[in-house]
Structure formats: structure tokens, C-alpha cells
Amino acid sequence: MTSIVTLENISKGFRDGESFHPVLKQVNLTLQQGQTIALTGPSGSGKSTLLNIIGGFETIDSGEMLIRQSDNMHSVAKWQDKQWSQYRRRSLGVIFQQFNLLTPLNVRDNIQFSLALNQLSWSPWCDELCHQLGLSTLLDRNVENLSGGQQQRVAIARALAHKPQLILADEPTGNLDQHAGMQVMQLLTDLAQQANSCILMVTHSEQCAEFMQHRWHVENQQIMVNPTNKKLQG
Ligand SMILES: Nc1ncnc2c1ncn2[C@@H]1O[C@H](COP(=O)(O)OP(=O)(O)OP(=O)(O)O)[C@@H](O)[C@H]1O
Predict the structure, then answer these.
(1) Is residue 180 one of the residues assigned to a domain?
(2) pLDDT digits over 136-148, tens only?
(3) How many domains does the chain have?
């Protein structure tokens, strides 16, 4: 197995005036290439915080984070903005509940914009993605005029177009009805497998969690790996 992100004894909390609220305390974990993980836990337990740390959107208070870049693990302790943005562009695909699509643009341009950030152009993989996601006939449509499920599929195509080593997803089916949500989960997991991408997905849905190989449960500032009989809360 190839590690792509390692957290060693990381802690994170937030200051609120005089008080300090710990969120994650001395957490250790490793994300492996191609692994799929559902991140569950009560509301406010720190799931999004963990995603934000791994995406470099939030700093850690202590501990160390290592990220695979060019076949080696690198400590991010001294990374500047340039290294973070390179990592986000090349190695990350992000799918959030709010699709964050570029609304004046059509489907093709939304996907192409993300490729262009990496000096990549449209490839047969992009055709395959669009085919499997049912977007081939929608490429010229303005994303504003698409349904919620269609927009979510564009967000998935955009996140996977450059075959990132890691996909961070926060409630990716939160805006969809159950049927559309399950379809999107199936496509997301199939396509991530084809791209050998790891998925770390926050979810409150038991059914969505079941699409992932592993479950990590955040509670009491700790992360339990593959807890048994852990029903979702929050
Ligand atoms: N930027 C911030 N400033 C202050 N406190 C924050 C900030 N971000 C998160 N928190 C606090 O950290 C805790 C964890 O928040 P987080 O959003 O990670 O939880 P969550 O598990 O994703 O919750 P939910 O399931 O409700 O989305 C909460 O108490 C939240 O209020």
C-alpha cells in the first residue's frame, strides 16, 4: 500500500475570546492510495475540520502532516502558499455540498477550467468520465440550467478530470434525493477506483457510508478506525 497523507500526533482547536475549544487531540492516521473512507461523527465533532486540515485550508496547532508529492512523503510544516496551491491543483479533487461550479460557463468549460489549472487538456479519460456520468449530451449546456443531480455529476467530473490522488468530499449527496444520491455514490466510487484515487468523504448517511471500504468515526477529539456497530449520529 502507498501512503499519500500521514498525520502524526496532530492537534487542532479554536480560540473563542478567552476560551479554547479543542477539536482534534493527538490524532494519528494514514490515507492510502485508492482507499475509500467514510468520515462520520456527531455534529460539531471535527469532521470538516479534519477535511480542511488535509486539504490545507486549515493549519494545525501541533503535530506533523506529511503528503506524497513526486513519489516521496514531504512534511508540510514549511510549505508556502505556492506549494499548497500546487498540491491542491495537482493532487486534490474537492466535492462539496455546494457544487461551486462556475455558473456563467457550460459543462465542458467547467471541466476544462480545472484541467487548465494544471496545464492539462481534454483527454480520453474526460470523455469516459462524461460518458459514465451521463454528461456527454450536456457538455454545451450552461451549468446554471442543470438539475441538482446533473450539477453534482459535473462537480464529480471536474474533481476527477486530472485523476487526483485524493478526493475530499463533504456530504456530496446532501442536496439530492435518495435515488439520485445513491446513483451519484455509485458513480463516484466506480470512477475513483478507475483513477486509483483515495476518497475521504464526510457523511451523515448510513447508506452513503456503506459505499466506502472503511469508516473513521470522529468523537471526543479522537478518530476511531473502522468502529464496530457504530451507527451514525448528528
Ligand atoms: N473557523 C472556526 N472558528 C471557530 N470555531 C470553529 C471553526 N471551524 C470549526 N469550528 C468549531 O470546531 C468544531 C468542529 O467543527 P466542524 O465543522 O469540524 O464539525 P463537523 O463534525 O464537521 O460538524 P457538522 O457535522 O455539523 O458539519 C465546532 O465546535 C465548530 O464550532
Answers:
(1) yes
(2) 999 999 999 998 8
(3) 1
